[in-house]
Amino acid sequence: MKARTFGRHIRESLKSLRRNSWMTFASVSAVTVTLLLVGVFIVIMMNLNQLADSIENDVEIKVVADPAADEAAVKELQKKVSATAGVLEVVYASRDEELDKMIQSFGDELSLYKQSNPLGDALYVKAQDPQQTAAIANKINTYDYTYEVVYGEDKVEKLFKVLNASRNVGLVLILALLFTAMFLISNTIRITIVARRKEIEIMKLVGATNNFVRVPFLLEGIWLGILGAAIPMLLISISYYNLYEYWEPKLKGELFQLLNTTPFILQLNGLILFMGIFIGVWGSFMSVRKFLKV
Questions:
Q1: Mind listing the pLDDT tens digit for each residue in 188-202?
Q2: Domain range spanning residue 273?
Q3: Is residue 63 within a helix (H) or strand (E), and if so which, with residue range?
Q4: Are 119 and 146 in a shared domain?
Q5: Contact (Cβ atoms closer than 8 angstroms) between residue 272 and residue 35
Q6: pTM, entire model
Q7: Helix or strand or coil: residue 20?
Q8: Are residues 174 and 273 in the same domain?
Q9: Are 280 and 224 in contact (CB under 8 A)?
Q10: What strands, in cross-sheet order, belong to the sheet with 146-150?
Q11: Maximum C-alpha span of the chain
């Protein structure tokens, strides 16, 4: 297509939006409302996913060495644990440090055990993939000088099942909402094009090609998508920024942290703009296709 022809299509698409102002308003409103709902839901789901990741990453394995093992044996155990496939980090804690933790948790009465510490040295292990915690714990439990491996077996497995189910439900809801948005917006655009079917028929009867007729409508779909995405992008950006500025100091040091405004807002705005343009083009393409058969 020549640049001159394409320029004409752009001008015609803009003129058409002005001529059909009420239908343009209806289409843009439909895009705005649905993308605003989708955007808010994505914000909620992404932050919930952030919480799920934080909970998973907080899961660790405590490996208690045999109290009778000497220093060399514990170092050998630590070396084997560090070399285990899937292990991300191993932190060593001496038996004296473990006793100090128990005294802090349960009271000074336990300080009597400092004269004869019955505890063993401990290794705190984190997995690269938290979902593999159970498999790594079972593997470590077979090593020599391992007295006990603790990772909250039943609770961890239930936790991972709940988190995975939550992610899957969230994904299904987002896809369902996007499908609903595409259906509603494409129907609104179809009404706009149906009102102009005579215009399409006349253009076809005078010899216009399918692409010549189709391109202005596709460009209109792009403009509708951009205009419809502008308000959700602005509202969500301002709202999330204010929400982050208010809650971020209050949540400092807590398990749950909101996603940083940068680059999250930029990524979300890019996604909303892409969805608006895609839905506008798709709705225009599907709607104008049936009127090209004259």
A1: 667 767 766 777 777
A2: 3-56+159-292
A3: strand 61-65
A4: yes
A5: yes
A6: 0.73
A7: coil
A8: yes
A9: yes
A10: 87-93, 122-127, 61-65, 146-150
A11: 103
How far is it, in rounded angstroms, from Cα 200 to Cα 256? 55
Contact (Cβ atoms closer than 8 angstroms) between residue 193 and residue 217:
yes
Confidence of residue 67 (pLDDT cuts 50, 70, 90): confident
Do 204 and 75 belong to one domain? no
Amino acid letter, residue 281 = V
Last residue in a domain, options 150, 168, 193 = 150
Beta carbons of 228 and 35 less than 8 angstroms apart: yes
Considering the domain architecture, whether residues 47 and 163 belong to the same structural domain is answered as yes
Closest CA to 78 of 68, 67, 93, 92: 92
pLDDT tens digits for range 103-141: 887 777 767 667 777 788 899 999 998 888 889 999 999
Q: Are 232 and 36 in contact (CB under 8 A)?
A: yes
Cis peptide before 263 (omega within 30 of 0): yes
Q: To the nearest 5 percent, what fractions of the chain are helix, strand and coil?
A: 75, 10, 15
Does residue 175 surpass a pLDDT of 70?
A: yes
